[in-house]
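lol forgot to send this yesterday, sorry. struct tokens for the thing we talked abt
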């Protein structure tokens, strides 16, 4: 915890800058209230991002399966 407190001064501005740029590009929605804040992925692109992640995972699995094709006889997605 102490290490986090020491690093916070220089990491927080960098994180804030990234979040601000994602908000400007309409990828994130920042909900601000008096009590709390939350960051959400814009629902309009949520499916696209999800499909991108799933496709990337499938490709990684295919590479792994090709290395161990003698051991792995069946696979399911």
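and heres what i got for the seq, position by position
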């Amino acid at each position: 915890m102490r290490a986090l407190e020491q690093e916070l001064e220089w990491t927080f501005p960098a994180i804030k800058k990234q979040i601000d740029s994602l908000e400007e590009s309409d990828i994130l929605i920042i909900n601000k209230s008096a009590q709390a804040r939350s960051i959400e992925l814009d629902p309009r692109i949520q499916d696209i991002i999800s499909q991108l992640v799933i496709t990337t995972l499938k490709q990684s699995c295919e590479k792994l399966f090709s290395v161990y094709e003698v051991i792995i006889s069946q696979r399911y997605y």
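The first helix runs from residue 2 to 24. anyway ping me if u want another try
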